[in-house]
Amino acid sequence: MTDQIATNAQITGRVQGVSFRAWTQAQAQARGLMGWVQNEPDGTVTAWIEGPPAVVRDMLKKLDDGPSVARVDRVVSTEVAPQGFETFKIRR
């Protein structure tokens, strides 16, 4: 598991009320990634993504697009220490 990285991404734009969290979960699960996604009180979405470096980078590129009904203005990601999540969940 030493080949795993993690990133904490904040996504801004029209990303709440457009199934962004469910779409993110489906995209992450399809790639075998672990972590979580949640809405924030300020209207952004935060995603914690863990997995192999190339797969995490691919997921970050997907977040730039988002689901068709969303409008992603910006994705800011910060590399963090993996926590060893075993699933990818939707939080709040």
Structure description:
The chain contains two helices and five strands. By secondary structure, it is an alpha+beta fold. Strands 4-1-3-2-5 form a five-stranded mixed beta sheet, with helices on one face. Strand 2 and strand 3 form a beta hairpin. The longest helix has 13 residues, at 53-65. It starts with a strand and ends with a strand. The mean pLDDT is 96.
| Number of β-strand runs | 5
Report the biggest beta sheet as strand number plus sense, adding barrel if it closes. 5 strands, mixed
Task: Work out the helicity level.
Answer: 25-40%
Content-based structural category = alpha+beta
How do the SSEs run, as a string of H and E? EHEEHEE
Rg, rounded, reads 12 Å
Indicate the overall shape: globular
Counting DSSP H or I runs of 4 or more residues, the number of helices is: 2
Overall mean pLDDT stands at: 96
Q: How far do the termini sit from each other?
A: 28 Å
Side-by-side strand order of the widest sheet: 4-1-3-2-5
Low-confidence stretches: none
- The percent range for strand residues is 35-45%
